[in-house]
């Protein structure tokens, strides 16, 4: 019996379809096992590729996950803009709830954001990092513009700063709020309760402080 030969995608739509297949496989593995479980061999196997064929579409495991991060951001931006638009102008409580919910309800994005600088940008080319940073800048600008519709006295620079700081807060809080199993058992003890951040409790307070500072 002859083994089917892998057919290289040549048309743009074929290349995009292969990339999306790999990203879907990476998302499943990342959600189930975290970044350690989303290695290139595992992604390739889940998607029905060989590892060598993955390199036709991504330069490394990190680029796969960076692309997954951008895909998650692409979903966040319009959802956040819609949530902000549904709040009354100047209502900081409603705005805080809307912004917090959009960031806190996306565990894959939270986890990817928390490893963005330390892990995902460590094994990719400078050109890839430039592409990601430019995309992030455009999306941050869109979110800042949405924020200013409800905080019209805030400057463009302040609104962009607020969005950046909120993203940084999520990145910093996520690992502590979702510790490894051994650490989670330790943090469940009353004496260590204060060492574990709670995103549902702590993020709204921090977001409101940021929004108040630019309002």
Give structural notes.
This protein is mostly helical and 215 residues long. It has 2 domains: 8-58, Arc Repressor Mutant, subunit A (Orthogonal Bundle); 60-214, Tetracycline Repressor, domain 2 (Orthogonal Bundle). The protein is 73% helix and 0% strand. The protein has 11 helices and no strands. The protein has helices at residues 12-37, 40-47, 51-54, 61-85, 92-104, 107-114, 116-120, 126-148, 156-177, 181-187, 199-214. Helix 1 (12-37) crosses helix 4 (61-85), helix 4 crosses helix 6 (107-114) and helix 8 packs across helix 9. Residues 1-6 have low confidence and may be disordered.
Helix-strand blueprint:
Blueprint: H1 12-37, H2 40-47, H3 51-54, H4 61-85, H5 92-104, H6 107-114, H7 116-120, H8 126-148, H9 156-177, H10 181-187, H11 199-214
Distance between the termini: 70 Å
Low-confidence stretches: 1-6
Count of the separate structural domains: 2
In CATH, the architecture of the largest domain is Orthogonal Bundle
Estimate percent helicity: over 70%
Q: Can you give the mean pLDDT?
A: 92
Shape: globular
- Helix and strand content put the structural class at mainly alpha
The CATH homologous superfamily of the largest domain is termed Tetracycline Repressor, domain 2
At the fold tier of CATH, the topology name of the largest domain is: Tetracycline Repressor, domain 2
Q: In DSSP terms, counting alpha (H) and pi (I) runs of 4 or more, how many helices? A: 11
Topology as a string of helices (H) and strands (E): HHHHHHHHHHH
Rg to the nearest angstrom?
Answer: 20 Å
Main sheet properties? none
Q: For this structure, what is the CATH class of the largest domain?
A: Mainly Alpha
Number of strands: 0
Strand portion, in percent?
under 5%
């Amino acid at each position: 019996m002859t083994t089917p030969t892998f057919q290289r995608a040549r048309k743009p739509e074929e290349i995009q379809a292969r990339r999306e297949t790999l990203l879907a496989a990476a998302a499943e593995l990342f959600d189930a096992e975290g970044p350690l479980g989303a290695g290139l061999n595992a992604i390739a196997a889940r998607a029905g590729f060989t590892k060598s064929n993955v390199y036709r579409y991504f330069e490394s495991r990190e680029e796969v996950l960076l692309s997954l991060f951008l895909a998650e951001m692409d979903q966040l931006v319009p959802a956040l803009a819609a949530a902000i638009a549904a709040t009354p102008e100047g209502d900081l409580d409603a705005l805080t709830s809307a912004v917090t919910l959009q960031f806190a309800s996306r565990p894959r994005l939270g986890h990817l954001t928390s490893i963005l600088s330390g892990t995902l940008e460590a094994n990719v080319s400078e050109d890839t990092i430039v592409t990601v940073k430019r995309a992030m800048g455009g999306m941050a600008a869109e979110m800042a513009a949405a924020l200013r519709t409800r905080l019209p006295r805030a400057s463009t620079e302040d609104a962009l700063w607020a969005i950046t700081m909120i993203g940084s807060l999520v990145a910093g809080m996520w690992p502590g709020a979702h510790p490894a199993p051994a650490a989670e058992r330790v943090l469940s003890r009353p004496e260590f309760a204060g060492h574990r951040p709670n995103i549902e409790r702590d993020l709204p307070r921090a977001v409101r402080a940021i929004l108040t500072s630019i309002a």
